[in-house]
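Researcher: Structure for this, please.
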Amino acid sequence: MFANLKYHLLMHLIIFIWGFTGILGKLIHLEFYQIVFFRVLIAGTSLLLFLLIAGKKIRIKNTASALKVIGVGIIVVVHWLTFFKAIQVSTVSLGVLCLSTTTLHVSWLEPIVMKRKFSWIEFLLGLLVIVGIAFVSGNINTSHHKGVYWGLLSAMLAAFFSVFNARLNRDGIPSSSLTVYEMLTGTIVIFLWLFFQGEINAGFFEMTQSDFGWLVFLGIVCTSAAFMLMIEVVNKIGAFSASLSINLEPVYTMLLAIFILHENEQLNSRFYFGASFIVVIVFLNPVLKSLMKRKNAIG
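Model: Predicted structure, token format:
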């Protein structure tokens, strides 16, 4: 049960860092598509330079694998576009709360992609997390329907790229190579999309020093470093366990939103109950899996 403790601890550090992502979506005064473009551009180029300086190989062995990585890269960038869109048309808290449904999608998708047995325990835990999120949401304005739609779509895409990355990593593609190629793919795809939309002009690259600083933090710390490490973590502990724990991100983000952005969500009894409920579910997951393994071993 504690064999992968260091990976669980690393995962929670990454999740806390990701808690800043939604906040940055409000602190950076650019359109959502500009934020995503500069995010993947900074993440991809910075990681590529680091790996080249370190003498690391980033080549993918065959064309079939390369095409799969490119496909996942497209999913990743569309996920971020929909996520930041959800935040900009509603609130930070609502955007991250919708991501809680990622767990449900992973519970049925991971057994198919990773070719393992479907787990009713995982499916049930995924449903219970949504109950906890409902309490955490507290006084969120329910009029932000567009934010909900974009957030739910973002969650489904998150499930797909998480599971697919775990499979690609298990098949022998290093997490560093996955991250570099997916970020660079995302950069090219979104640039072409914006170019044909007529959005690429001199004004597109204008920003304040504050926006630039936050974008660098978002691209390097919250994206290239965190994304690469999370692929390793998911490969060790499984996509479901990771996605279940990521449901703590809304708790971190809502706390940060209250203290940094002064959003109108309140730390009331609903928040504490929902947050505690999610924490219990997250830590119950490895316990139940350990008990099931022992039962199967005895049986």
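Researcher: Any notable elements?
Model: The chain has one domain: 5-298. Residues 269-298 form the longest helix (30 residues).
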